[in-house]
Amino acid sequence: MANTKKFPPFFFFVFFCYCCFSVSSSSFVPEIKVQQDKDEPYVGVNIGTDVSNLLAPADLVAFLQLQKITHIRLYDADPDILKALAKTKIRVIISVPNNQILAIGSSNTTAASWIGRNVAAYYPETLITAIAVGDEILTTVPSSAPLIMPAIESLYSALVAANLHTQIKVSAPNAASIILDPFPPSQAFFNQSMSSVLTQLLQFLSRTESPLMMNLYPYYVFMQNKGVVPIDNALFKPLTPSKEMVDPNTLLHYTNVLDAMIDSVYFSMKNLNVTDVVVLVTESGWPSKGDSKEPFATIDNADTYNSNLIKHVFDRSGTPLHPEITSSVYIYELFNEDLRSPPLSEANWGLFHGNSTPVYLLHVSGSGTFLANDTTNQTYCIAMDGIDKRTMQAALDWACGPGRANCSEIQPGESCYQPNDVKNHASYAFDSYYQKEGGSPGSCDFKGVAMITTTDPSHGSCIFPGSKKVSNKTSQVVNATQASGANTVRFHGAKTSTFNKNMHVLFVVALCLLYYSLIQVQLR
């Protein structure tokens, strides 16, 4: 018989514990060491300029400050806007348009000139934080793909020469379509035809500690997968466990499409052996209007998506794969670009109309001070300027008639009768109807003759209906706070993940102690 050596029971105890803790620490999810942004996660906005009567730069900056918007992205390096941003706390990403990439990538001198003209001339008075090189070049202009890295490297070299490379990052925004098989996220991978360029890009981003810029739209995922992706998942609406998307390989639960898209990017980077680059969402949003082929492009859906997106970022709940990392997001976009070509939805992604009136009121209460365009501020519905009297009178008649607005205060001798003109009376009637409808989307339109404002239109002894509501708000707020507590829904986030991991470790420790006790009994 061969001489067999028996291991002492304590060895099996140690080996068992080692195996259990090894499994516990991995949880079958690949470890991805990503460097978290030094700054807190934020929500910014994209500013497109295909807008008729776009605000003058000084007025635009004043509007951004009024709305407490602290991060913006431009699709060029507009000198007037950059000049107007000087000595404000607004941080800006400037862009190299697609049609300038060839020249910059072909000449270090051209790149240096571009940095001198568009960056060094304004920084640090204007807080330029990054340069976006092109926009979705790999998918929209694939023939220009070989130019991306030469342009990026040339611009970075120019920043180094100007000693600005540590303050200003360089990256390139990409469409979600560079990723194939995005769900489940653990199976995602970059389009292999682009892998050469992407590998170079990711190595550069890793070396310079810069983010990978991604344009991610759950709206398009939903539209292209109707019947497969429920709209509630796309809109960040609370889900029952049965409706959550589960990655069968990692068993991670996804409560919304955006998190799944972000994690698909992390897994795709992991497949190229890059694990220290953070995702920056440079575009995301939902259109408020569309043609017959886009029935889900509605004000309600746009309001729901963007409101919940803002809350999700400020909740700092990360993603199921990386609950410790919350990507910052730039909403597409600030203004409706009414000059954009069809389809209709292309002109209706904005939070505001070009005249700075809100397209809808975001529900972002509790999300810090971002955006004054919020239901936490009292809002009113008033008549727009420049509307002919006949059209205004028809809207007034509807509000006081079929609309059942309370128009008693604009009757002769009452407090809001003066000034006695159609516009003044219409404003009161519109606000009465708007407040009666609870400020719901679409209740301040009246066929395009009304607008929402946060400025109280009350004057003298004439108190508008919205103002009357303010005095009754205290008790309503208390009741609403008490009621909302029972219905709070939390996304899977860092706290939940940490709790689960701690419970897992405690369970393993208990198993180890139980096993050790059994060994002691046997030894006796």
TrEMBL record:
GO terms for biological process: carbohydrate metabolic process; defense response. It holds the Pfam family X8. GO terms for cellular component: plasma membrane; side of membrane. GO terms for molecular function: glucan endo-1,3-beta-D-glucosidase activity. It is found in: Cell membrane. PROSITE patterns: GLYCOSYL_HYDROL_F17. Its EC number is 3.2.1.39. It is a lipid-anchor; GPI-anchor. It catalyses: Hydrolysis of (1->3)-beta-D-glucosidic linkages in (1->3)-beta-D-glucans. Keywords: Disulfide bond, Glycoprotein, Glycosidase, GPI-anchor, Hydrolase, Lipoprotein, Membrane, Plant defense, Signal, Transmembrane, Transmembrane helix. Residues 1-26 form the signal peptide. Belongs to the glycosyl hydrolase 17 family. This is glucan endo-1,3-beta-D-glucosidase. It comes from Capsicum annuum (Capsicum pepper). The lineage of its organism: Eukaryota, Viridiplantae, Streptophyta, Embryophyta, Tracheophyta.
